[in-house]
Design brief:
alpha/beta, two-stranded antiparallel sheet, DNA polymerase, domain 1, TIM Barrel
């Protein structure tokens, strides 16, 4: 199904043959500069708007919407053309407006504390399905301008590499968004990080680290068994050397698992060598995970400890827990393939009976709200 968001301006012009040249510019400006739906671009005739709307129907349909924090955080469940569903989160701050977008319907990475990973993987999203999340949020945010886009919703962006790159390129070239305002998060697909560095794209990279020793990270982030910490470190070095941009590490604090003094020193050694910034995230509850997040006092102590060890660290202002819209909670995924999560290394035994994952969770910046 065609989408106006996947067209170059010359391709749009081909759909407007017979129209004055300025019509192409009007439609293009309406779509990208103003972020309007095709039927709302009032600078062009109604008949043309109707024709374009029929030619380029929306890729997303709102299935559900919830809000929290006096409307500061809003989450949508979107139904796709094949019945699969994804979730998108809009967050309003005093100094910025951020949308957390999904790059896949579900996720195959299987991170143990993430509801999306527990729910399983359905399919890749298209460029149009990702960009429509951005544009829908931009229209809702008006009159405030949507300032930040973070690929921290459902899915692993670098496992849908061509689409992630295509979306970033379009948002930069057509929407004039810069590296400071485009963030791609990954659980550590090392070869894709190196490939992304070579693209020369204007974006910020966030790596979901969560543990700085292989034994613990193997349990929290199963991809670590394929790309262990030493391999990930080399990819991060390549990113920094190639792009000259600082990267950040995301660290969801889990009581007794990765909030110990030993974990703090391991993280400081790993992050310090890369001069990486650390975002600490109090773990958000998910139904299929049997441990709890660190208490506020331990979060505070962990941050101070990192800073004393020479690592710049901040605590993520997590929002949207009440609407399952915080870090790791996005999980309205249909047609997915759930997998059972084993937590033996964390709990000293087999998972409890009845602890199979449930399809209900959140996003990454929504999942790890900025």
């Amino acid at each position: 199904m065609p989408s106006v968001y996947e067209l170059r301006i010359d391709e749009l012009a081909a759909h407007l043959l017979g129209e004055p040249r300025y019509r192409v510019e009007q439609v293009w400006r309406g779509v990208w500069d103003e972020g309007l739906a095709l039927e709302d671009i009032t600078t062009v005739p109604k008949v043309l708007r109707q024709r374009l709307s029929e030619t380029f129907p929306p890729a997303l349909e709102v299935a559900n919407e919830v809000a929290s924090d006096l409307g500061a955080t809003r989450k949508w469940v979107f139904r796709l053309h094949d019945g699969a569903t994804i979730e998108t989160v809009l967050m309003n701050y005093a100094d910025r407006v951020t949308v957390c977008v999904s790059s896949q319907a579900g996720c195959a990475m299987g991170c143990t504390f993430c509801a999306t990973g527990q729910a399983g993987f359905s399919r890749q999203l298209s460029v149009a399905e990702v960009i429509e999340q951005v544009m829908f949020a931009a229209r809702v945010a008006a009159p405030r301008r949507l300032s930040n886009v973070v690929f921290m919703g459902m899915g692993e962006p670098l496992a849908n590499y061509p689409v992630t790159v295509g979306v970033v390129q379009r948002l930069h070239e057509y929407r004039a968004m810069s590296a400071r305002h485009l963030t791609v998060s990954t659980v550590g697909v090392a070869p894709a990080i190196e490939r992304l560095a070579a693209e020369g794209l204007p974006l910020t990279l966030a790596v979901s680290l969560h543990a700085a020793n292989d034994q613990t990270r193997d349990e929290l982030v199963p991809l670590n068994r394929r790309y262990p910490l030493e391999r990930l470190y080399r990819a991060c070095e390549t990113w920094i050397a190639t792009t000259s941009r600082r990267l950040s590490f995301e660290w969801a604090l889990i009581d007794g698992v990765n909030d110990t003094d030993q974990a703090m020193h391991e993280l400081a050694e790993y992050a310090g060598g890369l001069r990486a910034h650390v975002n600490l995230i109090p773990l958000n509850p998910t139904p299929g995970y049997l441990v709890r997040g660190s208490g506020s006092q331990r979060v505070h102590e962990f941050r101070l400890g990192l800073e004393e060890l020479g690592v710049n660290a901040t605590v993520r202002n997590t929002r949207g827990r009440s609407i399952d819209a915080a870090c790791g909670q996005l999980a309205a995924v249909t047609n997915a393939h759930p997998t059972r999560v084993t937590l033996r290394a964390l709990h000293g035994g087999a998972p409890e009976a009845g602890s199979a994952p449930r399809q209900q969770a959140d996003s990454h910046e929504a999942g790890q709200t900025p």
